[in-house]
Amino acid sequence: MAPKAMARAVIAALLALVWTGAALAADIALVIGNRDYREMPRVTGAEASVAAAEALAERGFQVAAFRDLSAEAMPGAVARLVTGLETAERVVILLNGRFAHGAGESWFLPMDADAPGLAGLGAGGLPVSVLLGLAARKPGGAVVLLGTDDRAPDMGAGLRPGLGALDVPQGVLLVTGGPADLDRLLRDGLLRPGVTFAEALAEAPRGVRGAGFVSDLAALVPSSGAGPGPGLAELFEQAYWDAVLDLDTVAALEQYLDRYPDGIFAADARERIVDLQEEPEREARAVEEALGLDRDARRRVQQDLSLLGYDTRGIDGIFGRGTRSAIADWQDAGGLPVTGYLTRAQIARLADAADARAAALEAQAKERRREAERADRAFWDETGRGAGEAGLRRYLDRYPDGLYAETARDRLDQIEAERRGRIPKAERRAWDAARDRDTIAAYRDYLDRYPEGAFAEAARDRVRALERDREEAGRLEAARAGERALGLNPITRMLVETQLARMGHDPGQVDGSFDDRTRAAIRRYQRAQGLEVTGYLSRAVLVRMLAGMTRP
């Protein structure tokens, strides 16, 4: 079952429910233990789900417990959880089994999964984001525990074993670790009366990790045995207010006041409503709000602005001050009313301008690349087409990522291998020691002993390369840090590699891992685009590279 089909199955199961509010318990739990996978190794410790379910039941939770669920049964299990969410105060979700991640999502795999691959997820997994979204309905009283062992079976093309990066909603505690360790955390920590989330995690087994709502106020089981813990109502309201501030619209603020007319932030809400209603651009703001732009649409706007040279200070789908300023600058440059808010016609105009810019940049890059390749081939011919060591080294010195760089390095390796058998053991050992250390000092030590040695020219070349690297270290480290700050997920990395391959830059295997071959491809791309050559991605480089590829 493909991811979209899985989501449809979950939704269909939810819509088929008959709500019976009066019969529901105040605390609910979903516990699934998938141990005996048909095509994958058994999950060590998954049987701890039974003990965990019993412990939850003893604390008054209405528990829906399942073992070794198939893909067909998975939506029904989720539906059992949803039946209790309407009136529940607290919710616990415990999944023990195998997980896989890719394309920005993580899945809990049914027992009939068989290395499904990203294209279809074969037997159909349960998206972890679905469960986190359900837990988010009970902020401050929701705990999600995900347990698996360390073994990592093959997951098929585009998927990796285990959990990927997860976006934990406000008010939800997410805990990961081994099944047995999670059972211990639950029974000896979280289910003890008065033990807060933070206290339970502080005493958790070594392999257990918590994220999200690690509160030192909220407890799953309050000391009194019933009702919200101390300060919990305030925490709920704070989470709601934070969400309202993210939206920052009159409608959201009014909804807050409907729910909390005398709330902690009621005065702030009324003051902000007045500010929004009196702001000079309120009509323009209302026009944009009426468009109902989702987060993907906002990201496309930010991408288009960035491609045109306007700094949005991020491509995250959130229109903050940076994006508003970029919109205003673009409007000013185009002779449009400067409001910082967009109309439907302006979004279309912006997209057309970005498409034209992307096409122009690609045409320029193709011409630069053709010219660079002509020069590359001419120099390869000039240096003897790899016939001699000196020519090979001259070529690599000028074109370290050139068309024939791999051929040149392979030929030099052959020359070195042939030469090794003809030199004394002492010199061979000295050269091997220098290669192992791979430092300027090590190669100079070799040259001091063997100034005319068999590998003297190779040593001098490597010294020059390391000296260049040392001079460039600061610049490259800044570029490396800039790429890390982008927080690229595996699917974005695969898109980059796919685009590099499409443009003929040969990044190697498209697997989401940036190896030396990928770095060389990025450098070739940067040269072709007339950009600073670092081998690392900046936000501007990423936007330009993916321009046109991610637009519907």
Structure commentary:
- This protein has 552 residues and is of the alpha/beta class.
- The protein is 52% helix and 9% strand.
- The chain is built from 21 helices and 10 strands.
- The strands form 2 sheets. Strands 2-1-3-7-9-10 form a 6-stranded mixed sheet, sandwiched between helices.
- A hairpin with a 2-residue loop joins strand 4 (99-102) and strand 5 (105-108).
- Helix 2 packs parallel to helix 5 (179-190).
- It is globular and about 85 Å long.
- The two termini are 24 Å apart.
Strand arrangement within the widest β-sheet reads: 2-1-3-7-9-10
**How is the biggest beta sheet arranged?**
6 strands, mixed
Number of helices: 21
Strand content: 5-15%
The count of DSSP E runs of length 2 or more, i.e. the number of strands, is: 10
Concise synopsis of the structure shown:
This protein is α/β, with parallel strands linked by helices.
Give the helix/strand layout.
Elements: H1 3-15, E1 27-33, H2 48-58, E2 62-67, H3 74-83, E3 90-96, E4 99-102, E5 105-108, E6 126-127, H4 128-135, E7 142-147, E8 160-161, E9 172-177, H5 179-190, H6 197-202, E10 209-212, H7 232-247, H8 250-259, H9 266-278, H10 282-290, H11 295-307, H12 321-333, H13 344-382, H14 389-398, H15 405-420, H16 425-437, H17 440-449, H18 456-486, H19 490-502, H20 516-529, H21 539-546
Parallel strand pairs: 1-2, 1-3, 3-7, 7-9
Antiparallel strand pairs: 4-5, 4-8, 5-6, 9-10
Keywords summarizing the entry:
552 residues, alpha/beta, 6-stranded mixed β-sheet, 4-stranded antiparallel β-sheet, 52% helix, 9% strand, disordered N terminus
